[in-house]
Amino acid sequence: MDEGEDIVADLFNRAMNLTFNGDEKRSAIRATRARVKKKEDRNRAKNSVGGFAIPFAYAQQQLARASEHLQIALALFPLGAEANQLMGLVFLQANDGHSATRSFDVVASQGLPVGFYAEMRGRKQDQAVKCELSGDRVRMIYLSSYDKKGNPAPPSKPAGEDGLGDMVMDPSAPRQQGFESLDLTLNEIKKVETYRGMLKLKLAQQDVYLSPIYLPSFTPIEGPQARRFANTYTRLFVRYPGLEDSKLGTEGMSGGEKFVMGYNIANASADIAMSGFGGIGAISSVQDIISITRTVRAAMVSLSVSFASWEKSVEDQQQLLAGKAFKSIPIQPANLAFVQEAK
Fold first, then answer.
1. Which ranges in the chain belong to alpha helices (H)?
2. φ/ψ of residue 200, rounded to 5
3. CA nearest 231: which of 259, 194, 178, 277?
4. Which residue, 176, 148, 147, is CA-closest to 164?
5. Are 95 and 308 in contact (CB under 8 A)?
6. Is the predicted pLDDT of residue 73 greater than 90, yes or no?
7. Interatomic CA distance for residues 34 and 19, integer angstroms
């Protein structure tokens, strides 16, 4: 399990540009802000996407390696708090909220908070945090702060021994209490809601936005994909602190999105009908056909999208490792007589 922990910790240190944590080689890596898929959305997404870019192929490979180590640990100790904490984080990166919840339920049953990593933005603040959810409070442990250019600065107090706010916690061991953090009681949180690809926390004095750290692909910021992505984290606020008033985003296409899609298709179809396929009109018609294709494809993706790189859950792979728990035992001798006619 230690190897899995090292892999996951290194990925999150890179993703939040925590150059002051541990590895000296990490400070030599040129960090760039995490990007979105469409170039025209990049300026608009500067305050929506959390963390820094990691090559997607590398992140997927490392997460798969960590998953293999953790699956073995869970096969041996299925109720181990440490392994389930890490596996829950891996499942969140696979955008598999149901499997992450199963792992986090084991963690919460042992009196430990459930945590994930995000970039917190608000009034004059931009910080990497570990968000911890427990039955009576929400805690944002500060891991670093960023200036306008994205340069990190360490918190005034160390964020645990690993600099990640204790990514792995032992339920039987005492924990450091002197974190620099934002501690919120449940009464201080007016509402939690999905806001595009982020979470919006409405507090008494200000609104705080959480952009979850997402490693293996582009972070969605608009449309059904973005709302489904953020809903996974919003549900954690409902399940563990019990914030029942949290508002989930619409996971299908909204009425406005359906209208825009229909308008784009109708507009492109009208252009094809009016311009025909002769001369310059042919070029315009081809462009309109491409536009229609992209619009329909975007709609199909919005209805069914999967960010998971792992198709089998840990439960399935545990059964594969452990073999069959029970063997079928016949209750009577098998009849080997030849049957001439099937009834």
1. 2-15, 56-76, 81-93, 97-109, 223-239, 255-275, 280-303, 314-322
2. -110, 120
3. 194
4. 176
5. yes
6. yes
7. 16
10-60, pLDDT tens digit by residue?
999 999 999 887 665 554 455 677 776 666 666 666 778 888 989 999 999
> How much is the pLDDT for 192?
95
The amino acid that residue 93 corresponds to is Q
Residues contacting residue 39 through CB under 8 Å, at least 6 positions apart: none
Question: How far is it, in rounded angstroms, from Cα 115 to Cα 128?
Answer: 13
Distances (CA, A) of 301 to 59, 163, 253, 304, 307: 23, 38, 11, 5, 11
How does DSSP assign 79-123, residue by residue?
T-HHHHHHHHHHHHHTT-HHHHHHHHHHHHHTTPPEEEEEEEEET
What confidence category does residue 307 fall into, taking pLDDT thresholds of 50, 70 and 90? Answer: very low
Is 82's pLDDT higher than 70? yes
Q: Which residue has the tokens 């995000």?
A: 118
Largest CA distance in the chain: 85
